[in-house]
Design brief:
Elements (H helix, E strand, L loop, with lengths): L1 E4 L2 H8 L6 E5 L5 H13 L2 E6 L19 H12 L6 E5 L4 H5 L16 H4 L3 H16 L3 E5 L3 H13 L5 E5 L19 H6 L1 H14 L6 H11 L5 E8 L12 E10 L2 E10 L2
Parallel strand pairs: 1-4, 2-3, 2-5, 3-4, 5-6
Antiparallel strand pairs: 7-8, 8-9
Helix pairs in contact: 2-3, 6-7, 9-10
Bound molecules: adenosine monophosphate (AMP).
């Protein structure tokens, strides 16, 4: 059964009728990446809550909040298509009709320090405060046992984990693998801002990440070699960053890390494309 609700009152009423639920928060304009999160949630739970809310708090003043694609009808048909593959399951879509609907009677800002000041946080000041605040609020409203996030937004996943720990929330955070196009481009709502040529140029990002993986070859002793390669790459000013970090703390010092994440942001015109891969080191 698919149920779509738009008000806080309806959400609170229906939530009282369900016990354990899984939760997938999104900003809509769904693609196979989002649906992979829903798929896993439906395997784990009989009832899944799925939010579609373009949260103004996480957009900077010069970012794409106004032009962010809003495609509710198409989103609902993708959700329904996935739901039909699972028998006896329920999806409750919370698509609030306004921002006020979400934030009424809620005046807090939820902040996590440290991990939010680097990488995306350094480039987009305040972004993660917007993310942690909306996710905290949505968690408060939906009270899930597990919530599903994509590792495509790797730092976001790390920040949410830190937020859950800080606020002592009894919620398990699941990090789901990145869904890619057959050529390797990480799926993203922002890819539609790209021309066909830009889309194929954007494959340069995953090719570079895989090249670094190859240079590392799973060996800590190759870190310096990988670093020199990265420094060469960074001469291309379209990289906002390309960096090897500890997979949990996102610390730059990886000399003792058993697992690292190589995070990249590459700019194509005004579109920032995020990607990352994880590498184990011995
Ligand atoms: P968004 O609507 O962009 O806020 O994304 C909602 C959730 O879907 C976030 O947890 C994202 O990390 C996740 N997501 C977006 N793109 C992908 C992808 N290509 N693969 C896996 N998860 C994704």
């Amino acid at each position: 059964m698919l149920k779509v609700i738009q008000t806080l009152e309806e959400l609170q009423q229906i939530r009282d009728t369900h016990q354990r639920i899984g939760f997938v928060p999104t900003m809509g304009n769904l693609h196979a990446g989002h649906i992979s999160l829903l798929h896993q949630a439906l395997l784990d739970f009989d009832v899944v809550y799925f939010s579609i809310f373009v949260n103004p708090k996480q957009f900077g003043p010069n970012e794409d909040f106004e032009r962010y694609p809003r495609t509710l009808e198409n989103d609902l048909s993708l959700i329904d298509e996935e739901l039909n593959k699972h028998s006896q399951k329920t999806v409750v879509v919370f698509a609030p009709k306004s921002t006020e609907e979400v934030y009424q009677n809620f005046n807090k800002t939820i902040k996590v320090s440290g991990i939010t000041d680097i990488l995306e946080g350094a480039i987009r000041p305040g972004h993660f405060d917007g993310v942690t605040t909306v996710v905290y609020r949505l968690f408060e409203l939906t009270q899930p046992s597990k919530a599903y996030f994509g590792l495509k937004d790797y730092q976001q996943w790390a920040v949410i984990n830190a937020m859950v720990k800080q606020e002592k929330l009894p919620i398990e955070i699941v990090g789901m693998p990145i869904k890619r196009s057959p050529e390797g481009l990480a799926l993203s709502s922002r890819n539609q801002y790209l021309s066909a040529t830009e889309k194929s140029e954007a494959l340069y990002i995953i090719k570079t990440l895989r090249r670094i993986d190859k240079i590392l070859d799973g060996k800590r002793t190759n870190i310096e070699l990988a670093r020199s390669f990265i420094n060469e790459q960074l001469k291309d000013s379209q990289w906002d960053y390309l960096t090897m970090r500890d997979h949990l703390t996102l610390d730059e010092n990886i000399s003792h890390s058993s697992k690292i994440t190589i995070l990249a942001v590459y700019r194509m015109g005004t579109t920032r494309l995020l990607d990352n891969i994880q590498v184990e080191l011995k």
